[in-house]
Specification:
20 strands, six-stranded mixed beta sheet, alpha+beta, eight-stranded mixed beta sheet
Amino acid sequence: MFDIQEELKKLPQKPGVYLMYDVKDTIIYVGKAVSLRNRVRQYFRPSHNEGLKKEQMVRQIERFEYIITDSELEALILECNLIKEHRPKYNTMLRDDKTYPYIRVTLGEDFPRVLFSRQMKKDKSRYFGPYTSAGAVKETIELIQKIYLLRTCNRVLPKDIGKERPCLNYHIHQCMAPCQGNISKEDYRKQINRVLEFLNGNYQPVLKELEEKMQAASEEMSFEKAIEYRELLKAVKQIAQKQKITSSDGEDKDIIAMASDQEDAVVQMFFVRDGRLIGRDHFHVNIGSEDMRPQVLATFLKQFYAGTPFIPRELMLQEEVEEKEVIAEWLSQKRGQKVYIRVPKKGTKEKLVELAAQNAFMALSQDKEKIKREEGRTIGALKEIGRLLDLEEVKRVEAFDISNISGFETVGSMVVYEKGKPKRSDYRKFKLRTVTGPNDYASMYEVLTRRFSHGVKEQEELKERNLENEYGSFTRFPDLIMMDGGKGQVNIALKVLEELKLKIPVCGMVKDDNHRTRGLYYHNQEIPIDRHSEGFKLITRIQDEAHRFAIEYHRSLRSKEQVHSVLDDIPGIGAARRKALMKRFLSLDAIREADKKTLQEIPSMNEQAALAVYEFFHKENIEKNS
């Protein structure tokens, strides 16, 4: 038994990291301290007050652990790594992780390639970025391939030169085929040097070259070629336009500002690389009303830069942050060079930070409105449905539908909505086992029985193992079941629930003669709904989604039935042999023309299988001769 008060007495007066665990032995908080004894003890003093969020956390602490370090910097590094690994409930301020793409030039290879990369490794490659748009990076790489005709394959050159035929890129004039020895290593390197110039922002040489080629093609009446050069020229100009100069010093820096209210905060970042603004992004941060801005910014810096491989030379902030010196030291260590954290007070830099702050405020305001609208469509719509049916709380809804066409392969679908949004990981498909032909009531009875009996069984198994708070695939039951239909379908559901001794509200989604949602059938009466309300729109979405999911599953089963090869009709020819035959001969005609000896040479084919294939395609001739 862990005695918190006794363990507090054993804490050392040294720097380190502490980890708080809850009753399920889950890490709920990671913190660092200059003195573990002083910091950890603070949480358990009656007079201690760090706000409601920390109070809630302390009430959940079942035990704690600590790791001693030699310095505050080591403690900070360990804290960042543990938060990144475990993402504890009371640490995670960033709502989503973002990784930014790079352009990687593999200079360690004899014939380098230009690649898209999500990581920046310590290798012989040259990296450009990070960029905020993956699409823009892919467009740039594609443009480079078209202009400089570089290879994209994984062949090991020069070792593999001449071993295989050139790929499609060579035939469509987008690669010089170094794999065939068509260009020397030295000449290829010249092209790579031009690519490096291009990626460094020197666009003039390529613009001039494309202009000249376009004019020459035009004079030679090669108008298709001229149009091709014109499009390339336009694409390069677009990329050049996006690289707006924001600084004359040519350095890498991140400009960071924050806007906040009582519940939310948005951190805006401008990314400047080689003196150019290459992009911007904003991050939503979870905060409590008691959180101070310097503390929020410090936590953001630690979480963001723990997860990004690139550290700029300078961070420009709108205000001072907590632990500024130790964070700067940590970033310098990660970068391998001195990193400066500055709060500019005047001039161009101060204006850039102010611009970031304005953008943060706009993002916060716009997202608040967006969240409000989204809540109206989702949570608000569910509350509206709950009021219509006189239900206290509706968070989880499950809807069911049956699909069959001309009695073929009846299937059932279950879709799940939580807080008004589809939870696709909980969707389920049912292939009917006991029902043949088009009998929707019997089909629905089987689907519901399987769904809820499975759930009851899972709940009992978890209870036996003292894991009531855990969830299996069917364990969680809905607050409301929505049937695609009226009285008949609702009664089927109620019958299943009665047999399993379950009490869950059931309503039917009733449609009119034009197959449009009309209202809800509940407690033996039809309840009309305002067609313009968010509740009505949500019901329609749920009904359409259940129908779509059932039809999609049904279609996939039908297509599997219809995918049938002639080779499947040959005794002894299974999937592996069928694949081997098609790989070797490419067509049925070629298989038909092959003799028994040739057929037997194919991997996985024995004499008996080869004879079966030969006799299948020459059956008529064999019968005539006999």
